């Protein structure tokens, strides 16, 4: 009886800790107070700058935003973070486990004690040219431990953008063999702490085009997908939404020009209440022509500001978006 009581007490403590660390909708509203019904740049000059930034992810403390700073060629990615304190974003810093290799697509477990990301870092001392999924844990003193390669999800192709359900199932994009197109969405269930062989979501989620990234809600009822070449695209990569009905996913619906542009839209993430959508876009201030000639000073200012055609982070309310 004593053992059972201790186990119940431990479970209650863990549940309370997880609830305390989970971001509430009102906290997200404070983080992204600028959000409206059209895509809005996130913190211009601090987070979205004239550099290349992408792939936002809010830590479970509800106050810290992790994202990527990238080379303009988009082949070296570094995980950085900033926090909102008294209404002001702090100066970004490099995450302690990043900064040397191409690291990207960070996502946290609900309790914040573990994170997953993709990286081209060596595996067991052997260099890799493809992205693999890695995990990292917080130590009891709050520091990050050493990243560990998730070998059971490895493949000869690239893995992208892991996201997690409440049950621990991991969704991710992959160019591994066995897909329907160049890149597909796969999932792997967590059983006794071990990820099971990945299963392809199949049609209609996947197509002969490319589905590279998918955000799944914790209840596994909604997918927001970044994809291209599905036949109804607005731009190079578009965002789509799909709901699960029973055991089947609906055909993904393009979110249209309210979100998508002729450029890339990708890295979707939703707030816990589903009211806010974060994403990345490289939409620019001009395509082949501008409305008027720009003096050199104005041209230079725009070329060194967000919206210059490099990737930036945007936020939009989802009212009537689905």
Q: How would you explain this protein's 3D organization?
A:
With 322 residues, the chain is mainly β. The protein has a single domain, classed as TolB, C-terminal domain (Neuraminidase, 6 Propeller), CATH 2.120.10.30. Helices cover 11% and strands 36% of the residues. It contains three helices and 24 strands. The strands form six sheets. Strands 2, 3, 4, 5 and 6 form a five-stranded antiparallel beta sheet that branches. Strands 17, 18, 19, 20 and 21 form a five-stranded antiparallel beta sheet that branches. A four-stranded antiparallel beta sheet has the order 1-24-23-22, with no helix packed on it. The longest helix has 20 residues, at 2-21.
Q: What would the principal axes of the Cα set say about the shape?
A: globular
| CATH C-level class | Mainly Beta
Query: Which second-level CATH architecture applies?
Result: 6 Propeller
Number of strands: 24
Order of helices and strands: HHEEEEEEEEEEEEEEEEEEEEEEEHE
Low-pLDDT sequence parts? 1-21
CATH superfamily: TolB, C-terminal domain
């Amino acid at each position: 009886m004593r053992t059972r009581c201790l186990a119940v007490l431990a479970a209650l403590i863990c549940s309370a800790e997880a609830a305390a660390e989970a971001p509430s909708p009102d906290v997200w509203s404070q983080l992204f107070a600028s959000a409206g019904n059209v895509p809005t740049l996130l913190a211009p000059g601090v987070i979205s700058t004239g550099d290349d930034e992408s792939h936002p992810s809010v830590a479970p403390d509800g106050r810290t935003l992790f994202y990527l700073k990238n080379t303009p060629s988009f082949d070296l990615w570094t995980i950085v973070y900033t926090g909102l304190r008294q209404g002001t974003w702090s100066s970004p810093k490099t995450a302690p486990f990043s900064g040397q290799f191409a690291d990207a697509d960070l996502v946290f477990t609900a309790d914040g004690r573990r994170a997953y990301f993709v990286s081209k870092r060596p595996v067991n001392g052997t260099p890799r040219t493809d992205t693999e999924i890695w995990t990292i844990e917080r130590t009891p003193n709050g520091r990050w431990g050493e990243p560990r390669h998730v070998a059971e999800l490895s493949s000869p192709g690239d893995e992208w953008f892991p996201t997690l359900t409440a049950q621990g199932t991991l969704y991710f994009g992959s160019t591994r063999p066995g897909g329907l197109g160049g890149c597909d969405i796969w999932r792997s269930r967590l059983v006794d702490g071990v990820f099971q062989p990945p299963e392809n979501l199949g049609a209609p989620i996947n197509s002969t085009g490319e589905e590279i990234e998918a955000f799944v809600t914790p209840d596994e009822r909604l997918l927001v997908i970044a994809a291209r070449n599905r036949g109804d695209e607005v731009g190079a990569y578009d965002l789509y939404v799909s709901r699960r009905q029973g055991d089947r996913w609906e055909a993904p619906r393009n979110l249209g020009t309210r979100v998508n542009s002729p450029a890339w839209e990708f890295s979707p993430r939703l707030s816990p209440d589903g009211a806010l959508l974060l994403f990345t876009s490289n939409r620019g201030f001009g395509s082949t022509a501008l409305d008027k000639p720009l003096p050199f000073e104005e041209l230079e200012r725009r070329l060194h500001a967000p919206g210059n055609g490099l990737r930036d982070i945007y936020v939009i309310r989802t009212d009537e978006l689905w």
